[in-house]
Every structure is written in structure tokens, then in C-alpha cells.
């Protein structure tokens, strides 16, 4: 799933939370799943009487929800901890906690190597946070990093972060049972488990009642969702019927597991969006085998063909890793060839970063020199931009439904949003007429590699 930049928890929590003398500051790194987890953590803290702030300087409790996917993600956290160390000198009562995947990976080491850290809690330990905080308040360091086979937080109400009530995440499962050889996630998030479908429906209905227009269902591998006979396709169908006015998206699909029944279901409901994130990682069969992905390039392209057949309007995005162990120039070229063959609409690209303890770290040498990795990444980026621009250009002249999110950064008279199929769109001259959350018909008039640009095609909103 897409990786987010650091995000700070604040504004809406400030609006919704009851005023409290104790203020928490939450900073989130990593993927959408971590972002959703921060909302859970905020919900747990709110029930304990905490308020929230966007300014760490006035916080009593600082929580960093961390990512361990690449070395760079962890380096950033060490830097941030230095900053919080300096803050603590001025505010000695400040408590600092590290949550998330890096907490799970490093465990006690975090307490040992960063004395500023008071508390360490892994992704399955958030229910214990109030008790861990009390332990720290009584003068001891606190750590809870046990992974669980059952925890889904199904009964915990998240405190929503988005400043406008437009879109929200719902985690439908946790953990991952795949063992992609490069990946740390199975070690930091444990075994896969699906949340019960009734609680997912309930949460979606609550969001719809509050006026949310878009829900993204989250899981590391949504295709293996199952709860007492309800598979992912049936979950989608039930949700589509339960909240017919809400656009439903999901991430992430796995090429080896993605079933036609899911594509068929999307095609048969008007509020299931044809946006598919299908990480390929590499276009070379030998690399895919070393990565332990469980499919070949031909299999992947056959999945792409199925997507385009069931969902001609589909927007297809992917993840690519360059410079994986032993990747030759010829193998790299196969990745570029697959990118063209799949005609991706959007590509997230990464340089391989060895993670201690993974299958790849134990089995293979991280032997592609950094300069080669960098050059290959540049190649992927250049091609990705080309494909992105082509994909956007194909839309010029067509009419799309667009969900408005917020005033555009470049010109606040325009509104930024997303099309039904998931592409970024800037709607010109819409800000003074339509508030965030409006769904409009928009005619695409221009395209850059970053965004579609459109005009209002029909002044009456489809949904206000
Ligand atoms: N199951 C999730 C994986 C989340 S990680 C998903 O498929 O979206 C998101 C992406 O990070 C992966 O798809 C992969 O492209 C990238 N990634 C994971 N481990 C990595 C590593 N060790 N080095 C570089 N990129 C990595
Ligand atoms: Fe990692 Fe693979 Fe699981 Fe995704 S499917 S979280 S890449 S092990
Ligand atoms: Fe997500 Fe990073 Fe963990 S990508 S699952 S926060 S390692």
C-alpha cells in the first residue's frame, strides 16, 4: 500500500475530544495501516481522558508511530528522537513512546539506545497503552511487544484524523502470512487475521452517517480476507449495499491471490471503485522467485488483462523494488518491459533496503552497488512519469465523477480531489461554489504527470 510521509495527528481530534489538561501528540510514519492505527491509539487515549495537540512543545505525551520497511524509515525516527530528547530537557515531565513496526522490530534495544524513550509498544499492544502509560508515570520504563493471533481492535472506535469528513480508512485485517523474502512486515505485524465482517459494516455505516463519502479498506493482502465463509468479494458486496452512497476503495491486492470474483463484484456495484493497487515488485521471473512472491511476470500480466477486461475504467497502480539481491541489468530491463506491457497508471518505486532477519537477509547478498540501484531507480521513475502522463492524457475530453477534498495548493480558487477511479484531479474555479465532500461531474481538459485538470461539467452536484 502507499507509504505516507510523516503525518501529525491533531486538528479534528482537537475538535472532537473533550478538553483535557493532558495533551498527546502523535506523529505517524509508514503506510496507511499505521495511519489507521494512530486513529485507534487516539481513540484509546481519548477514552482515557487525553486531549490532543499538533504542537509537540505543549504535549505531555509524545507518541511516534513508526515504520521499519526500509532502513531510511528508521533513520528518520532516530533523528526525531534526538529532537524529543532536547524537548524533554525543557519539559522534564514529557513522556515519549515509540509505537509501530520499528518498536516491534527493535523492542528493548530502543529503550537501551535512546534513553529519551519511556515506552515501547508494538502494533498488537495498543489496548495496553493506558496501563503502560501508568507504569511510566510511576517511574518505570514500559514495554509491550507481544504479537497476537486474535487482536483486530474490532471493538475500538478510532478517532478520525481527516480535517474534513471526506474519506476514512477501515482496517479489515492485520498481519501477513506471506513471506516475501525482502519484507519485514510479517515480523513486525505477525500472523494474518481478519476482523469480523459485522464490525466492519457497522464502522462503515457510522462513517456514512457522519457524512464521509469515501472509505478505504486496508489489509496487507485483502484477497485473503475471510470471516466465517465471508470472503473479500462478499465483504465488498455487503459493504456496497450497506453504504450505497459511499465510494469504497481497498488496498492492497496480491497478484497471486487476486480472484476474478472480486473484479466481477466491483463491476456490479456502482459505488465500488475500479482502483486496483497490485504490487508487482519486479518484471523478472528469476527475481520474483528470489523474492518469494509466488507468481511469474506472465501470471501478473494475465491478472492485469483480467482487470482491464472486467473494469475497462480501472486505474492500476503498483510497487516496484529495484536493486534486489543479485538483480542483473537484464533482469532490471525486464521490469521496465513489464511496466510498459502493464501500462501502469501510477507506480510507487523503491530501492531495495536489506532488513535484518528477513529471508533475503539470511539467504542472499545485498550485492547491487548503491550507484547502480540509484541509476535503476531513476530509470523506473522516468518511465513511471511517462506512463503516468500517458494515462492522464487518455482522460482529456472525458467526463468523470470527482470527490472534492480541499482547496488546491497552487491556486486556492481551485479544488483538489479524486476521480471515482482514484486519480488526482484539480477542478478549476470550484472552491467558492462547492465545499469539500461534494461529488461533481467534471470534464478533464488538461493533464500533467501529477494530476488531471478539469472544469465543472454540470453545476448541480451529484452529491452535496
Ligand atoms: N503487503 C503490502 C506491503 C507493504 S510494504 C503491500 O503489498 O502493499 C509496501 C511496499 O514497500 C512493498 O510493496 C515493496 O514494494 C516495498 N518494500 C517492502 N520491503 C522493502 C525493502 N526491504 N526494500 C525496499 N522496498 C521494500
Ligand atoms: Fe510484505 Fe509480501 Fe506481506 Fe506485502 S504480502 S506485507 S510485501 S510479506
Ligand atoms: Fe506499514 Fe512500515 Fe509497518 S509500511 S506495516 S508501517 S513496516
Give the arrangement of secondary structure elements.
Elements: E1 3-9, H1 11-16, E2 23-31, H2 32-47, E3 51-52, E4 61-66, H3 71-90, E5 95-99, H4 100-106, H5 108-113, E6 119-121, H6 129-137, E7 142-144, E8 167-171, E9 173-174, H7 185-189, E10 193-194, H8 197-209, E11 214-218, E12 226-227, E13 230-231, H9 232-242, E14 247-251, H10 260-268, E15 275-277, H11 285-291, H12 297-310, E16 315-322, H13 329-342, E17 346-351, H14 359-363, H15 370-394, E18 399-407, E19 415-419, E20 424-427, E21 439-447, E22 452-463
Parallel strand pairs: 2-3, 2-4, 4-5, 5-6, 6-7, 8-11, 11-14, 15-16, 16-17, 20-22
Antiparallel strand pairs: 1-2, 9-10, 12-13, 18-19, 18-21, 19-20, 21-22
Helix pairs in contact: 8-9, 9-10, 13-15
FE3-S4 cluster (F3S) binds next to strand 2, helix 2, helix 4 and helix 7.
Describe the structure.
By secondary structure, the protein is an alpha/beta fold. The protein folds into three domains: 2-144, Rossmann fold (3-Layer(aba) Sandwich), CATH 3.40.50; 167-393, tm_1862 like domain (pyruvate-formate lyase- activating enzyme); 399-458, Beta Barrel (OB fold (Dihydrolipoamide Acetyltransferase, E2P)), CATH 2.40.50.140. The chain is 36% helix and 25% strand. It has helices spanning 11-16, 32-47, 71-90, 100-106, 108-113, 129-137, 185-189, 197-209, 232-242, 260-268, 285-291, 297-310, 329-342, 359-363, 370-394; strands spanning 3-9, 23-31, 51-52, 61-66, 95-99, 119-121, 142-144, 167-171, 173-174, 193-194, 214-218, 226-227, 230-231, 247-251, 275-277, 315-322, 346-351, 399-407, 415-419, 424-427, 439-447, 452-463. Strand 16 (315-322), helix 13 (329-342) and strand 17 (346-351) form a beta-alpha-beta unit. The model is unreliable at 11-15 (pLDDT under 50). It binds S-adenosyl-L-homocysteine, iron/sulfur cluster and FE3-S4 cluster.
Amino acid at each position: 500500500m502507499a507509504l505516507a510521509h510523516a503525518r501529525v495527528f491533531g486538528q479534528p481530534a482537537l475538535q472532537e475530544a473533550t478538553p483535557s489538561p493532558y495533551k498527546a501528540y502523535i506523529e505517524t510514519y509508514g503506510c496507511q495501516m499505521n495511519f489507521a492505527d494512530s486513529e485507534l491509539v487516539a481513540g484509546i487515549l481519548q477514552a482515557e481522558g487525553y486531549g490532543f495537540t499538533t504542537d509537540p512543545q505543549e504535549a505531555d505525551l509524545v507518541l511516534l508511530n513508526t515504520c521499519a520497511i526500509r532502513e531510511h524509515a528508521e533513520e528518520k525516527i532516530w533523528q526525531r528522537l534526538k529532537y524529543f530528547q532536547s524537548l524533554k530537557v525543557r519539559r522534564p515531565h514529557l513522556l515519549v513512546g515509540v509505537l509501530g513496526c520499528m518498536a516491534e522490530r527493535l523492542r528493548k534495544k530502543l529503550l537501551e539506545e535512546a534513553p529519551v524513550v519511556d515506552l515501547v509498544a508494538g502494533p498488537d499492544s495498543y489496548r495496553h497503552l493506558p496501563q503502560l502509560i501508568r507504569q511510566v508515570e510511576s517511574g518505570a520504563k514500559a514495554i509491550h511487544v507481544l504479537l497476537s493471533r486474535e487482536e483486530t481492535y474490532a471493538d475500538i472506535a478510532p478517532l478520525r484524523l481527516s480535517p474534513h469528513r471526506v474519506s476514512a480508512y477501515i482496517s479489515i485485517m492485520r498481519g501477513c502470512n506471506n513471506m516475501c523474502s525482502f519484507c519485514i512486515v510479517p515480523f513486525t505485524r505477525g500472523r494474518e487475521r481478519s476482523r469480523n465482517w459485522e464490525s466492519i459494516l457497522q464502522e462503515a455505516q457510522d462513517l456514512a452517517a457522519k457524512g464521509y463519502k469515501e472509505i478505504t479498506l486496508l489489509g496487507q493482502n485483502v484477497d485473503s480476507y475471510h470471516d466465517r465463509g465471508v470472503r473479500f468479494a462478499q465483504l465488498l458486496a455487503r459493504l456496497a449495499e450497506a453504504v450505497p452512497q459511499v465510494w469504497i476503495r481497498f488496498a492492497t491486492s496480491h497478484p497471486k491471490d487476486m480472484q476474478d470474483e472480486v473484479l466481477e463484484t466491483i463491476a456490479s456495484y456502482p459505488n465500488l471503485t475500479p482502483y486496483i493497487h497490485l504490487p508487482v515488485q519486479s518484471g523478472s521471473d528469476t527475481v520474483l522467485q528470489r523474492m518469494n512472491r509466488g507468481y511469474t511476470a506472465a501470471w501478473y500480466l494475465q491478472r492485469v488483462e483480467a482487470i482491464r477486461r472486467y473494469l475497462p475504467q480501472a486505474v492500476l497502480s503498483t510497487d516496484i523494488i529495484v536493486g534486489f539481491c543479485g538483480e542483473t541489468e537484464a533482469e532490471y530491463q525486464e521490469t521496465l518491459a513489464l511496466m510498459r506491457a502493464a501500462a501502469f497508471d501510477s507506480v510507487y518505486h523503491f530501492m531495495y533496503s536489506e532488513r535484518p532477519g528477513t529471508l533475503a537477509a539470511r539467504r542472499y547478498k545485498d550485492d547491487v552497488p548503491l550507484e547502480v540501484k540509484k541509476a535503476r531507480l531513476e530509470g523506473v521513475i522516468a518511465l513511471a512519469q511517462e506512463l503516468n502522463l500517458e494515462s492522464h492524457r487518455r482522460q482529456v475530453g472525458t467526463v468523470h465523477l470527482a470527490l472534492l477534498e480541499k482547496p488546491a495548493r497552487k491556486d486556492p480558487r481551485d479544488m483538489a480531489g479524486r476521480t471515482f477511479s482514484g486519480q488526482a484531479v484539480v477542478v478549476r474555479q470550484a472552491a467558492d461554489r462547492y465545499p469539500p465532500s461534494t461529488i461533481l461531474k467534471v470534464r478533464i481538459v488538461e493533464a500533467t504527470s501529477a494530476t488531471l485538470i478539469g472544469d465543472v461539467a454540470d453545476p448541480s452536484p451529484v452529491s452535496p
